[in-house]
Specification:
By secondary structure, this protein is an alpha+beta fold. 24% of the residues lie in helices and 18% in strands. The protein has a 4-stranded antiparallel beta sheet with strand order 3-5-8-7.
Length: 287
């Protein structure tokens, strides 16, 4: 019996703590007390929200719509190839059209903005071997900035115009190389443009065979620099270098490395040993 009375007493105490009809307290606090607490937290969180909004507003005032305020970048930009294989792996069989058709379609899609007819309409015919500088006049922005033509025909045998299969059908494939865009980068001096060279890794030195580059000497001409950003330079056409493999060994993996050489850009860095270079695997099967 005593146990039952204790249980009822404990239950009554809990009910009274939740709601006390005599003092009109909810969970030990009156309505006025709860109101003050809610008012405090409302003001507190409104203050935090206002501080956050003010901080973001001040931060946005420091940003430029056309040029990043701060650029934490490598001294040398990265490089990338086209067509995009699986993890930088270009493997196909000459006799199997389906194995290389995706590479051809990828190149066709990538090069469509480089068609001469489009370039003539949108970009300028610039003098080569000198920077295309377009400075702003004080607070007056010189936007949108113009861009130089990079015509698809500059890629000659790798343009897809004279050979619509880019050499993939006869074992002489083309690979396109581009430097990643960096705003304001000046990749050469004394009218010396940076250029690309490719070679096989040491263990595959006798497998690669001769190469040919387009444009001649594999150069990224200085007239395509500096880059002013996607918003300021809406029609910018990134320069390309095409590498054609003329007599690569068949039915074997060839580890290829291409790198950019420049009198202002260092190849590799302490932060990224692949800066200014790209490595990929090439395998051409005859069946």
């Amino acid at each position: 019996m005593s146990g039952s009375k204790d249980d009822r007493k404990s239950s009554g105490e809990w009910r009274e703590f939740f709601w006390n009809p005599r003092t009109h307290e909810l969970l030990g606090r009156t309505a006025a007390s709860w109101g003050l607490i809610l008012l405090f937290y409302l003001i507190f969180y409104l203050f935090l929200a206002g501080m956050f909004a003010l901080t973001m507003y001040i931060l946005l005032l420091t940003l430029d719509d056309y040029k990043p305020t701060w650029q934490d970048q490598l001294a040398t930009p990265g490089m990338m190839i086209r067509p995009k294989g699986n993890q930088l792996d270009i493997t196909y069989s000459m006799g199997d059209t389906e194995s290389w058709d995706s590479f051809v379609q990828n190149l066709n899609s990538f090069l469509s903005p480089y068609n001469d007819s489009y370039q003539v309409q949108t970009n300028d015919n610039c003098p080569p071997d000198e920077y295309f500088i377009q400075e702003d006049s004080g607070e007056v922005r010189n936007n949108p900035k113009r861009s130089c033509q990079f015509n698809r025909t500059l890629l000659e045998d790798c343009s897809g115009l004279t050979d619509r299969f880019y050499g993939y059908d006869n074992g002489q494939p083309c690979v396109l190389i581009k430097l990643n865009r960096v705003i304001g980068m000046l990749p050469g001096k004394e009218k010396q443009s940076p250029y690309v060279t490719c070679g096989a890794k040491r263990e595959d030195g006798d497998k690669l065979g001769p190469l040919v580059y387009f444009p001649p000497n594999g150069t990224f001409n200085l007239m395509y620099y500096p880059y002013y950003g996607k918003k300021a330079q809406v029609n910018y056409t990134q320069p390309l270098v095409a590498v054609k493999f003329l007599n690569a060994s068949l039915n074997t993996d060839i580890n290829v490395e291409c790198k950019v050489t420049s009198n202002t850009l260092a190849t590799g860095s302490d932060r990224d040993k692949f800066a200014g270079r790209v490595s990929f695997k090439l395998r051409i099967n005859d069946k």
